[in-house]
Amino acid sequence: MSSDIGIYGLTSQGINLALNMASKGLLVTVGNKSSDKIKECTDLAEKDDLEEKVRGIKDPEEFCKNLKTPRVVLFLARNGSSIDRNIQKVVPFMEAGDIVVDGSTDSVAEYARRAADMQEKGVQYITMGIAGSDTDARKGPAFLVSGPQEAYAAVEPLLTKVAAAVDDNPCVARVGEGSAASYAKMICDSIEIGECQLLAEAYDVMRHARLNNQEMANTFAEWNKTEQESYLLDITSTILLKKDSDVDGCKPSDAFLVDRIQDQAPAKRSGVDTLAESVAERCDVSIVADAIYARYASIDKDARRKITNVLKAPKFDWAHLDLQAVLQDQLHAYACARLVLYAQAFSLLAAASAQHEWKVDLAAVARVLSGGCVIRCALLKKIAAVFEKAPELENLLLAEEVGKELAAQQAAWRRVCTLTVVAGITASTHMAALAYVDSYRCGRLPSALIQCLRDATMGEGFERLDKEKGQMFSCRWNK
């Protein structure tokens, strides 16, 4: 019997996705340039009593012969060049009407090139962002898909069977044209980077306030019972209480694991890509930017040690504070900064959609990401509802309910930012979020002085308030 789908390129995510599909009754053919990866996948299938559902075939021609027509082949790889090599091996044995599903992480230009190549061959081409960890791929990830409606219609029933579900709705959607899905997946990854840094900063305030791990875990658990409910909040509580007892190659101890881990976190490529895209689209993603720069600072530990000996932290008496009031303020600050993080991320996605004519359904993106991925949370349901009501909304901050929520909590947010400055604690993403709001609510920014300086030093000119937009003037500053 022919397989329902082929997966070529067995990353860890690909293996787990194949097992997920097999467990849901789909027949899956897997292929890879390395026989070892194919064997790893089929061995795991046998271990789970799924050996009749998963076939491993290395030869591209035989791989394609094992698939139902029109063939659906999902290509996965760690980078774009590997995807191209895999596509070049397999596509010659595909036929007109077959479907290539590109699950790579790459640039808009590369996706456009592949789409044009597939069109020449008569093969349908769609891009897909698989949101979620390797574990989520096995249990049920979220699928963001973009490209021709006809190709999506053929793939949707397969994805629906294996996707996560929220309120009985599968986390699967065609979110737009072109490579919108892969771009949305990049946005998802960058939100995760921002979320992690916001949580780390909240943890740092609690740590400096002398809360122990149990108290911090309890605090995050209580937050998770509010509108801020999320997978990341939930797992943070678990992490803080995890003892150092389940790390391969390390002697178990009763110490908390988080306290024995290096304070160094590498930056993810998707976050750096988001910064580059934000520059191209002239969109402010300062929270993600500060989260990435915080990771760069964490890696440069030698420099931090040296600077610590030169610049001492300010003396600060935590004992005089009302700790419960501080924690309540921190919850409000965290809630506000999260809203701004999502506002920035979705604004960038909307700008890219307009630039590339993707017609992105922002509500669908939010709905899909509300389950099956690392950033799954209650807030995404609220965001989906906002965009369903106002699909053309330029920025989440323009939604009346969002504005009211920020206004109601901004005093607490400002108190937390002030506290961290006075105490000498880094809270760059909380403050970046606040600076973003203060900039956008300001009727007149100090940028007029910048224009004067540019004209005075470089003769670049300026626009005037009392003249038509676009009309440039220059002053003889030294006269």
UniProtKB/TrEMBL annotation:
Q: Name one GO molecular function term.
A: phosphogluconate dehydrogenase (decarboxylating) activity
> Does the UniProt entry include the keyword Acetylation?
no
Under the heading Gene3D superfamilies, the entry gives: N-(1-d-carboxylethyl)-l-norvaline Dehydrogenase, domain 2, NAD(P)-binding Rossmann-like Domain
Show the InterPro entries listed in the entry: 6-PGluconate_DH-like_C_sf, 6PGD_dom2, 6PGDH_C, 6PGDH_Gnd/GntZ, 6PGDH_NADP-bd, NAD(P)-bd_dom_sf, Pgluconate_DH
Q: Which residues act catalytically here?
A: 185 (proton acceptor), 192 (proton donor)
What span is annotated as the signal peptide, if there is one?
none
Q: Which SUPFAM superfamilies match?
A: 6-phosphogluconate dehydrogenase C-terminal domain-like (SSF48179), NAD(P)-binding Rossmann-fold domains (SSF51735)
Please provide the Gene Ontology terms (biological process) for this protein. D-gluconate metabolic process; pentose-phosphate shunt
User: Which keywords does this chain's UniProt record carry?
Assistant: Gluconate utilization, NADP, Oxidoreductase, Pentose shunt
How does the annotation summarize its subunit structure? Answer: Homodimer.
This molecule's function is given as: Catalyzes the oxidative decarboxylation of 6-phosphogluconate to ribulose 5-phosphate and CO(2), with concomitant reduction of NADP to NADPH.
UniProt lists the family membership as follows: Belongs to the 6-phosphogluconate dehydrogenase family.
Q: What is the protein name given in its UniProt record?
A: 6-phosphogluconate dehydrogenase, decarboxylating
Q: Organism source for this protein?
A: Blastocystis sp. subtype 1 (strain ATCC 50177 / NandII)
